[in-house]
Structure to design on (219 residues):
């Protein structure tokens, strides 16, 4: 689904985030990305989401070499990918319900067909009490759960999650991980960047470890 071949990423001449990295995200796979702070976990996710270009090498997404397609085509490919941003990126003028439903509205779907699913997902992530609330009154944990719900509501083919359990308590973290696992069982590929060893131990999956610009895959 996503393949990196001999990919390097540099922000400047003195800082190389990735150095000649190659690996693939397989259909239906479940992966953790680990590494110390500053190792490049978020940068790697942004490469997979087509929001960063590699300095060298080739990135292919759904069979398309991203260096050879238009920005419009990239936007269409991104619709097949759900991204849970570490800084949430909720729209402040929308309610929690509206933020979560946004990917479906962008697709042009009729609310009558998705309202029930959005409300059920709100209950799953324990946000039914915030359905009409806007982001400014939500706690960090509530914003995190809303961002996760928005990423999964459209049943994307791949979900990329940047520290998805970083602002929630262990019980909610466990429920979130269970949600990702259920989606994975339905065929969605999951990639979670995390430093939370507890969730890695809870559900053991392959680990992509980043260190000094290189990767080591532990299965």
């Amino acid at each position: 689904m996503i393949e990196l071949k001999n990919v390097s990423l540099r922000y400047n001449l003195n800082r190389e985030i990735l150095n000649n990295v190659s690996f693939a995200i397989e259909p239906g796979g479940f992966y953790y990305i680990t590494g110390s702070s500053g190792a490049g976990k978020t940068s790697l996710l942004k490469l997979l989401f087509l929001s960063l270009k590699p300095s060298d090498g080739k990135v292919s997404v759904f069979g398309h070499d991203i260096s050879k397609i238009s920005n419009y085509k990239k936007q269409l490919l991104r619709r097949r990918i759900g991204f849970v941003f570490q800084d949430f990126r909720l729209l402040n003028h929308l309610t929690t319900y509206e933020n979560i439903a946004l990917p479906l509205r962008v697709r042009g779907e009729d609310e009558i067909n998705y309202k029930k699913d959005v409300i059920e997902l709100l209950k799953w992530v324990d946000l039914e009490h915030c359905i009409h609330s806007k982001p400014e009154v939500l706690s960090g944990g509530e914003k995190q759960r809303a961002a996760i719900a928005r990423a999964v509501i459209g049943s994307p083919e791949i979900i990329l999650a940047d520290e998805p359990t970083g602002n929630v308590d262990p019980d909610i973290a466990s429920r979130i991980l269970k949600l990702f696992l259920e989606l994975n069982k339905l065929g969605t590929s999951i990639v979670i960047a995390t430093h939370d060893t507890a969730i890695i131990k809870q559900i053991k999956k392959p680990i992509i470890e980043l260190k000094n610009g290189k990767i080591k895959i532990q299965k």
About this structure: The chain has a mean pLDDT of 91. The chain is about 35% helix and 25% strand.
